[in-house]
Fold:
Amino acid sequence: MSEKDKKHLPGVDVGTAADMDEVMRKFDRESATRIWQGTPKLIVGVVMALFSLYCIWMTLRCTWDLPIRLTSFLGLITIMGYLTYPARKDHVKPNSMPWYDIVLMLLGAGSFFYYCLNYNSLVMVITSAAKINPASESAIPNAWFYLAIGVVAILVLAELCRRCVGLPILFVVGALLIYTFASGQNLARVIYTLFYGTSGVMATPIQVCAKFIAVFIIFGAFLERTGISNFFIDLANSLAGSTSGGPAKVAVISSALCGMVSGSSVGNTVTTGSVTIPMMKRTGYQGEFAGAVEAAASTGGQIMPPIMGAAAFL
Structure:
């Protein structure tokens, strides 16, 4: 069903793309992004497109060592993240990026790229991070320099996580760090393990993200831009539209399908709800009930594989 057809359906009020963006910015943390216009928007778009191509190439063709691939990926993610997410929602201004965000972006990305470019010379640090004996740290040349790089990278990454998904995930990490320090580990040991080892920042979640999730997100974004949500709504209509309670079932099925490519509960509500909520109201459902059905169905979008949202990882 095309947007033109939807606008001619009685009782169906489909908002414009600007209206949907406004709703997303208001209710979805991951949509509270910077506003780029004109030439800056073109430049950021080109950077994002090149990053997407890099992720696809890294998944299909790259033969670099795992730490090199992961640190380069995290360095680029840091750049993409700070170009996209402001410190707070009310800091969003067209073509504006505060100086402190630029400093954080450069420091964080620089730390990961330093690791990436100097991986072979950091073998001693990486090996030491895997040892249990803390005394081995004193034998590392420039140990405090490596420690400072690790601290900066982790703090910048933590701030980016706060901007993207909020404080809950940082509370979980903070509780685990408190437990780690309470068990007798010192700062150097924790930083070496988190940053230079493969059981911290570069553990299985980041490995899966770099190899699979990023590519699926790119594929999902491509599907969204091609209007796949319209197909999902039509498919749900053909499956359940003629049954008892059909409009509500259409909302549940279409939201589940859209959740596979969006990973956002708010995004599902805005996309499919613009059609299913008026459809349910036309068939006799109360407005509150129609909105509740769509909201409840769309919440599952955050746990629908393969993309999933931050809640699934939490």
Summary: The chain has a mean pLDDT of 78. The longest helix spans residues 38-60.
